[in-house]
Amino acid sequence: MQRSGLQEFWSHRELLFFMVWRDLKVRYKQTALGVAWAVIQPLASTLIFFLLFGKMAKMPSDGVPYPVFVYLGMAVWTYFAGAVGYSSNSLVNNSQLLTKVWFPRIIIPLAGVLSLLPDFIIAALVGFVIMIVYGQPLAWTVLLWPLLLPLVVLLALGASLILATLNVRYRDVKYAVPFLMQMWMFLTPIIYPVSKVPEQYRPLLMLNPMAGTVEAFRTAALGGRALPWPALGAALGMGIIVLLLGLRYFSKAEREFADII
Amino acid sequence: MYAVSVHEICKQYRLGQFKQGDTMLREAIVSAFRGRRGRGQEEILHALSGVTFDVSQGEVVGLIGRNGAGKSTLLKVLSRITYPTSGSYTTNGRLSAMLEVGTGFHEELTGRENVFMNGSIMGMRKAEIAGKIDQIVAFAGIERFIDTPIKRYSSGMRLRLGFAVAAHLDPDILLVDEVLAVGDAEFQKKCLDSMGEMRGGGRTVIFVSHNMAAVENLCQRVIWIDKGRVHMDGPAQDVVRAYMATFSSAQSGAADLAAINSRVGTGEAKFLGTDFLDRQGQTLNFVRSGDALTLRLRTHLSEMIPDLHVGVEIRNEMGLMMAASNNWMTGPSLVRVPAGDYNFDLEIDALHLMPGRYFLTLWLKGPDSRNYDLLENCLIMDVETSDYYGTGRGIDPNFGMMFLPARWRADSRLSGQP
Description:
By secondary structure, chain A is mainly α.
């Protein structure tokens, strides 16, 4: 009775639900501020960049108040970086499960990526409040956010599959990921607008799938301009490629997880 | 139609290349440059080397064998946790593996939440767990604490909860690793009973245990695994008896251990021999219940050992561990021990074992629980009865598993009576 990976996954969908639910329940247990941490992170970074770049360096922000500009990008980025950081350690953190019971392994990193979504939703809602405070009208295109979100999940999952698999063998990943994410953030137009990037480098910038994605989220909320469709298309294409590569690498390596973790 | 059919399964582990613990990218890069990735250089551990057997539907089969014989690896292969290097197997029906009690328990979740989590991990449906939760809680006997986070539970409560979930799984095939070895006696009995019920229910069970009494009691058929192969396969009583007989070929009393070749381990540290001594350091010719006793372990270290752990385990004739001691538990720690010959003395204040035959297992381990030298049941210790209480009545082995260093005091009005 050989069942395909997809069938196996489907028959374990409840376990995916329980894993996400466990991560959610446990994340802010015994913290004083609880779920407020979902907002503190992007808020604090926004404040710092506002003081450094907005006030001191007078960074332009496409005519939008700089804190609004940064926060919107930062909310998306915080989810992405958090999901990749959390999920890339998920296999190692769940080694107890990997060595004691079988289930489709992909549930572990997938649950990690999904379990941070509620944090993002809270951070996004706070973002809309900030826009109101700054008198920035919310464009109707903000309704596209739920359609853009799967793209970020896709990118985060693809990256996580590769990093989590590497992490099983090489614990270097644990140390490299935070650093990698920091580098990646500066290569993404979060604290600076794309318009500030010299024209000839812009196509290069768009090789970063998160660049088009963050830009799209921000434009959708602020309105007034067309969404960066070509960049979005490129991000989607790259997202799919990374995910397929990740799935391939993961499913080849998962047979050995229990032996080498 | 067999429930489980295993054909020529081999499992090899590569040692050295990826040791336990954190592997660093640096090591891989360095070894790639040195060209050490050649397969011939790697140390290969053959955990299973060609295991074949079939289990019919409804059979309850015991797997026995010494530590490191491959029993647990076999269960891990059958439960899909690890993949065989070669060979194949088929299973027919829903399979659950219990290699541990309470897999996936999280400290911060309540008992109830953990039942759902653990049940789901073990392959139960949400609706199924919801339907059985009351039974599970009642089985564990922790109704009052079911909505308390399990970090407040005692280890016994956790175990009971984990076992309660497992007892309510409803697989066609159940694989159980030695999980009964833990927990209090009363609960162990309850679990054995519930496993006995499984036998009635037409369920196929493969059961690993060192508890020969339990194996004989629960299984019709026993497979004895030795050095990664099926050594014997047959009716429970015959196989258990043959297995126990190998214990008796162990040596007794002061022994030369250097020549034993059934040892497991990497050999940087080795046992040479043992002596039973009294408090004055004189060799004892016999050991009695209640005696003060020093067990001297003579060892040889062929190189500096960064962190040495020495241990002794005492088992009775049924294979049940009666007592154990090691310096990791008790101190002193033995750090950076240079090469050489050393004696390690286990000073036992009073041997509270019933008269009878016991088997000693000796080990020398490193901090990552790698074995330098493991000698299982290598020594027989025959404990004679003694007039411990000075009443001339001796210690009677029929009264329990151990005896207490205790005395009676009668009501003071009765003192002075003849």
